[in-house]
Amino acid sequence: MKDFNFKIPQDIEFGVGSLKKLPDILKENNAGHVFLISDHGLESIGVVKKIQDIIEAKEIKCTTYLEVKPNPTVDIVNEATKIYKESGATSIVALGGGSPMDVAKAVGVLASYGGKITDYEGNHKVPGAIVPIIAIPTTAGTGSEVTASAVITDESRNYKMTVFSYEILPKYAILDPELIMTAPASIAASCGIDALIHALEAYLSRNASPFSDAMAEKAMELIGRNIRRFVANREDEEAACAMMAGSNFAGIAFARARLGNIHAMSHPVSAYFNVPHGVANAVLLPTVIEYNALSDNGRYEVIYNYIREGNEAYNGFKPDMLVKEIKKLNADLGIPKSLSEVGVKEETIPDMAKDALKSANILANPRKSNLNDIIELYRKAL
User: Fold this and answer.
1) Which family does it belong to (predicted)?
2) Which residues, 6 or more positions from 141, have their beta carbon under 8 angstroms from its beta carbon?
3) Which one of 18, 36, 198, 364 has the minimum C-beta count within 10 Å?
4) Using CA atoms, how far apart are residues 170 and 252, in angstroms rounded to an integer?
C-alpha cells in the first residue's frame, strides 16, 4: 500500500431542516454582513428569498449577487468581486450548484489577495486563507462544498481553467435535502450522474487511497441505489437524503484522489459548446469506461454491483457488463447518447483534445492517454 494522507478541515451540517443552523454559524464567525452568491433560477423558485429571510431575521445584513451562469466566466468573477468589495461584506454564502460555489471561491481569493483569477490558475497558488465561505448546495451533484477547486471559463481562450488549493475550501457546508426536493427531473438526473462519476473516477484513479476508496464506495452505494428513484420522485425524502450524502462523500473522495479522462474531456465540451457539466460527463462516461476496461483490476465489478438494477445472480463478470449497465442507466435518466446530440462539432475535436491534455486529471486516469487517444475517444463519443 502506498503512502497517503488526508484532512477534512470543514464543519458539515447534514439533515432535513438543517438550514435553520445558518444564523448560528454566521454569528459564530462574527459575520455581520453576508455576501450571498446565487443565480436567478433559484431566485425564481423562492430559494434565494428563503435564505435572505433566514439571514436578515437575525439582523445580519445581506448583499446578494445573482448573475451567476452555468460554466461561470472570468468576467462574472470580476463583477462579483467588485460588488463584494463595494458592499463591505465580511463573509460569503454560496447557494446553488457548482457554479455559484466556484464563483464564491474565486471571489474569496481575489477579495483576499487581489490580482486576476488567472494569476491563481493551477495548483497551490493561493497564498493563504480566504474570506470565510458557507456553502449551501441545492443540487446533489457537484460536491463543490467539500472540494478544493474552482473551475472558471476563460472565454478569451475557450478554456475552463482550474484554481486548486486547500485554502479555498468552504469553511462550512449545510446539506439540507429539502433544497433538492423541488429540482426538475432533468437537473436531478444530470447532477446525480455527475456525482456518481465523481465517485467512480476517484475509485478508479491512480491516486486512490483506502480513505478515498471508503468515501467513493459509500457514495456509489448511496447514489447507485437511489438515483433512479430520486429522478422519478424528487419528493422521496429517503432518496433525496441518500443523494445529497452520496454527492458529498463523492466530493470528498475526488478532492483527495482526483478524477480521470471523463472530467478532463468534459471541460472543453462545456467551454466550447456551453454544455452543462453533468450532461457532458454523462455522455462521455460509457466511452471512457470502455476505454479504461483494459486497466481494470477488479474494481469494475464493484462499481457494477452498486449501480445495477436488481440483485439477480450472475456467473462471471466481464467489463462490458459495466459498460452496458452504464448505457442503460443513462437511457433511464434521459441522458443524450452522443456528443453530436448536444451540439459538438467534429472540427473542434483536435483543439478540445489539446485542452483536455492540460488537465491534471489525465494523469490520474487508470489507462495512460496521449493526444491521439483523446481525439479518438471524442470521435467515438461523437
Assistant:
1) Belongs to the iron-containing alcohol dehydrogenase family.
2) 97, 98, 190, 191, 192, 194, 195, 247, 278
3) 18
4) 13
If we measure between CA atoms, which residue out of 122, 84, 101 comes closest to residue 173?
A: 101
Q: Which domains are delineated in the chain?
A: 11-179 (3.40.50.1970), 185-381 (1.20.1090.10)
pTM value? 0.91
Sheet order of strands, 11-14 included: 11-14, 172-175, 133-137, 91-96, 33-37, 61-65
Report the relative pairing of strands 133-137 and 172-175 from DSSP bridges: parallel
Give the HSE-up count for residue 87: Cα atoms under 13 Å, Cβ half-sphere: 23
CA atoms of 243 and 368, how far apart (whole Å): 31
Phi and psi at residue 132, in whole multiples of 5°?
Answer: -60, 135
Exposure string for 87-98, b = 16+ CB within 10 A, e = fewer: bebbbbbbbbbb
Contacts 24+ apart (CB under 8 A), 339-342: 339/269, 339/283, 339/284, 339/378, 339/381, 339/382, 340/382, 341/283, 342/269, 342/273, 342/275, 342/279, 342/280, 342/283
The three grid cell numbers given for residue 219, joined into one nine-digit string: 457514495
d(CA 25, CA 202): 31
Task: Encode pLDDT of 253-268 as tens digits.
Answer: 998 999 999 999 999 9
| pLDDT tens column, 330-359 | 999 999 999 999 999 999 999 999 999 999
Distance, CA of 32 to CA of 73 (rounded, Å): 29
CA distance 277 to 99: 10
Q: Classify strands 11-14 and 172-175 as parallel, antiparallel or unpaired.
A: parallel
DSSP-derived pairing of the beta strands 33-37 and 61-65? parallel
Reported confidence tier of residue 272, pLDDT bands at 50, 70, 90: very high
Name beta bridge partners: 134. Answer: 93, 172
Residues 109 and 126 sit within 8 Å (Cβ to Cβ): yes
β partners of residue 149: 164
Sign of CA pseudo-dihedral 182, 185, 188, 190: negative
CB burial of 135-152 (b: ≥16 within 10 Å; e: otherwise) equals bbbbbbbbbbbbbbbbbb
CB-based contact 93:182 (threshold 8 Å): no
